[in-house]
Design a protein that fits this description.
The protein is an alpha/beta fold. It has helices at residues 67-85, 90-106, 108-119, 123-144, 148-151, 172-185, 200-211, 226-234, 247-257, 282-294, 311-325, 346-361, 393-396, 412-420, 435-444; strands spanning 30-31, 33-35, 38-40, 47-52, 57-63, 157-159, 162-166, 189-193, 219-221, 240-244, 263-267, 273-276, 306-310, 365-368, 383-386, 403-409, 424-425, 427-431, 449-452, 467-468, 471-472, 485-487. The chain has 2 domains: 30-268 and 470-487, Aldehyde Dehydrogenase, Chain A, domain 1; 273-452, Aldehyde Dehydrogenase, Chain A, domain 2 (3-Layer(aba) Sandwich), CATH 3.40.309. It contains 15 helices and 22 strands. Bound molecules: 1,4-dihydronicotinamide adenine dinucleotide and magnesium ion (MG).
Length: 488
């Protein structure tokens, strides 16, 4: 097989278009706020459009929630908490979570397509990763609802109250599941604010709650931009705030909550190192690098955005990486053959392009693939930098795009020192044939999750979260229940 006949740009043939159809469901022209079990307009009547970043077309009009709407939603959540949800047995709560999980499975095809249209991620990922994992999180936490006594032996676990949850745009429905499933399983009620560029699946989740017969007000969803999020955090009726997003906003939230008893968990950015030793299975490692940084356009807080490769195999790895990258298909997120979809928003696309310029100005060498990209929409070709120094901004700062920074190392200690030399500590990766090296690296890197001979694998039973500026608190597993209970 020659190089070109499996590529999208090949001189022999490329893949024929294979788009997933979007005619098996119909989006509404406009969506209200989901408060007290009903969709209602924003008090101000204001709306904004959510667009498809692959073609810049508006998908639907979304209600823009102001302070009064936030107040309505928090009150609805409080009433549901006091009157219904906190009093319900864990066994009964669990039944609702199982129902939600099953409806997510039933509507999986619709949810996957909407996720790809609203956010730009390839259908292969939304279909095979985001939506099944979202359902899995509800199944997993449904199981915990009546077993909290086993999660915290010798203690009594009670709910804490109303949780305000703010989520980003990189895994819209999956983040709903990560936040909402443990909160509800533990007996809390929720006011959720999805990201302004990807509100649709969170709103469809409101419909799913209706279908599941979830008592009114247990889950509420308010849409809007940063000001809506800030109004939610400021509301005195919250017992808990959970946030995933940028480090800057995380810090602002921390300040806004200072002096209040409201509990807080933060999941912020990352700058993970993927460490390749000379004894690694190089071809698998190259696949792992690709998956680590190009998965979801690099819009992943735990992305393997730095590659640390042992000097003796550096050239081989870089050559193989280049060859593999040239086969990546960038384009229509709904096409089943697409590897890299659209960048989520114009703003994010500009941020990534700025970093491409910053890297070159700092003296690093940029490689980008030659694949074609559509004219409309927001796209960045798979890219990497070589000749980078530890002090470069492209090594220290989160780019959140398909851009890898490559460095080399000679010894394990040097690899660890470089891996830890950033303000973040969310994840990491190690590729080697030697178990002892895996243990040394996993103990030596200060990060919440470290993958060995694989990357970007998630499971509801495995806790996820960071150190340093990557935030605090864990989501998933038994550890992820802890922020949602009071122990006595
Ligand atoms: P962001 O932090 O502004 O957005 C995340 C969520 O926070 C959205 O729902 C947004 O509406 C809300 N928000 C914004 N300002 C707020 C405020 N003052 N109070 C309360 N909520 C607020 O992130 P943005 O601007 O979309 O992305 C910027 C960078 O942040 C990215 O380039 C990436 O480096 C990082 N990021 C990290 C994520 C992660 O998963 N850790 C997710 C999204 C972004
Ligand atoms: Mg959108």
């Amino acid at each position: 097989m020659t190089e070109t006949n499996i590529s999208n740009k090949g001189s022999y043939w490329g893949y024929a278009p294979a788009p997933e159809s979007a005619d098996h469901f119909k989006l509404k022209e406009q969506y209200g706020l989901f408060i007290g079990g009903k969709f209602v307009p924003a008090g101000s009547g204001k709306r904004f459009a959510t667009i498809n970043p692959a073609n810049e077309k508006a998908l639907a009009q979304i209600a823009d929630a102001g302070e009064k709407d936030v107040d309505r939603a928090v009150k609805a959540a409080r009433t549901a908490y006091e009157k219904v949800w906190r009093k319900m047995s864990g066994r009964e709560r669990g039944k609702y979570l199982y129902r939600i999980a099953r409806i997510i499975q039933e509507r999986a095809r619709e949810l996957a397509v909407v996720e790809s249209m609203d956010g730009g991620k390839p259908i292969r990922e939304s279909r095979d990763v985001d939506i099944p994992l979202a359902a899995a999180h509800f199944f997993y936490h449904a199981g915990w609802a009546d077993k909290l006594g086993y999660a915290f032996p010798g203690k009594t676990a009670s709910p804490i109250g109303v949780a305000g949850q703010i989520i980003p745009w990189n895994f819209p429905l999956l983040m709903v599941a990560w936040k909402v499933a443990p909160a509800l399983a533990c007996g809390n009620t929720v006011v959720l604010k999805p990201a302004e560029t990807t509100p649709l699946t969170a709103l469809l989740f409101g419909e799913i709650c209706q279908e599941a017969g979830l008592p009114d007000g247990v889950f509420n969803c308010i849409t809007g931009a940063g000001s809506t999020g800030a109004a939610l955090v400021k509301h005195p009726g919250l017992d808990k705030v959970a946030f995933t997003g940028s480090t800057d906003v995380g810090k602002a939230i921390q300040k806004s909550l200072a002096g209040r008893s409201t509990k807080l968990t933060l999941e912020l950015g990352g700058k993970a190192a993927n460490i390749i030793f000379e004894d690694a299975a190089i071809d698998q490692a190259v696949e792992g690098i690709i998956n680590g940084i190009f998965f979801n356009q690099g819009h992943v807080c735990c992305a393997g955005s730095r590659l640390l490769v042992q000097e003796s195999v550096e050239q081989e790895v870089v050559e193989k990486l280049k060859a593999r990258m040239e086969h990546l298909i960038v384009g229509d997120p709904l096409d089943k053959n697409t590897d890299i979809g659209a960048i989520n928003s114009k703003a994010q696309c500009e941020r990534i392009r700025d970093y491409l310029k910053v890297g070159q100005d700092e003296g690093a060498e940029l490689f980008q693939t030659k694949c074609p990209v559509p004219e409309k929409g927001y796209w960045v070709r798979p890219s990497f930098f070589t000749k980078v120094a530890q002090s470069h901004r492209i090594v220290q700062e989160e780019i959140f795009g398909p851009v890898l920074a490559i460095q080399s190392f000679r010894t394990l200690d040097e690899a660890l020192e470089k891996a830890n030399n950033t303000p973040y500590g969310l994840s990491g990766g190690v590729w080697t044939d030697k178990g002892a090296k895996i243990f040394k690296v996993t103990r030596g890197i200060k990060a919440g999750v470290i993958w060995a001979n694989t990357f970007n694998k998630f499971d509801p039973s495995s806790p996820f979260g960071g150190y340093k500026e990557s935030g605090y608190g864990r989501e998933g597993g038994r550890h992820g229940l802890r922020p949602y209970v009071e122990l006595s």
